[in-house]
Specification:
By secondary structure, the protein is α/β, with parallel strands linked by helices. It folds into three domains: 4-91, no CATH class; 111-292, Rossmann fold; 307-368, Arc Repressor Mutant, subunit A. Helices cover 44% and strands 11% of the residues. The protein contains 17 helices and eleven strands. It has a nine-stranded mixed beta sheet with strand order 1-2-6-5-4-3-7-8-9, with helices on both faces. The chain has a two-stranded antiparallel sheet with strand order 10-11.
Amino acid sequence: MEKVDDLFLLLSFITDTYASKPLIKKLYNSLNNFSELFTGDLTAFKPKLTFEEIEKITLIRNAIQKLNLSEIKKKTEKQKINYIAFCDKDYPEKLKELSDPPFVLFYKGNLDLLKNTKAVAVVGTRAATNYGLNITKKISMFLAGQNLVVISGLATGIDTSAHIGAVKSGKTIAVLGTGLDIIFPASNKDLFYEMLEKGNLILSEYPPGTEGAPWNFPQRNRIISVLSDAVVVIEGDLQSGAMITARFAIKQGKPLFALPGPIDSPMSNGPNVLIKSGVAELLTSIQDILEKIGKGKQIKFDLKDDTEKLEALSEKQKVIYKIISPQSKTFDNLIAETKLNVQELLKELSILELKGLIEKEADGKYAKMV
């Protein structure tokens, strides 16, 4: 007879059972002899189960028999991947709230970040604007500095900025849509290992070897939301993964915040619709988030432009800053739009950079910082 935690480990390697998670959860909570359901005589369970449930369990039993538990354990150990099963005492209580909780949570790093710690999910599109990336880093760095754990999905764009910002001042959790042996996207390899080196946590419900199938990522978003005490949507169009996370947050009763953006930017469509429909609060201050999750101390942080810095600018600098604000600009674009000569523009750009209002990116474009 397999131990219950071994059964859950085997179940996690059978992709066909994912749709049966609600049934497995129900049976585990209602049966004293749960493990015998998969290893003993099924006829003893017929009075307790429907015909459809018996059929599903039979298919799962057949699939389990094709797996090699010893080899699975050796593989996870070799890859230094830890795991906790649904039946484990350390399995996060928040995940048990899901109708379809992960059979097993695979993880690397500091699992204690899931215990008695307030957390905020910061999510958004892969196709982020410079403004979105910069404000995400700023928000995440500040939240982490307040001893809050920042949760995101390690995707490109907003997710990456959320983790980068959080790592600078505190802790962060990444929930992957792949197995932990597959870093996706590969461009986040350095960030992946930096997070582990600094005592953060990376987890997944998917077993080692699981590739990044498109349907995995929407599914993992329910975990990002349920592990959080509040969800912040930075940018995303109406069909983005961030909006899926927002829908999970609404369903789970989580406080939801959205960052407003320009009406002519597709990446602002999602947050703007969330705000307009009244399901998300307009995010103007970190104080809003802290109050919602019971951390309502007074702090000096606002998402609006630094008024004093802007008022101190010369007229030329204000013109340049206003042009750069909606979206990043090349030097040639700025020459054409400001009508300044090369030397004048270089001088004013240097001053704006020193004031921390803009930055020059790797591709040579100038982007707004605040």
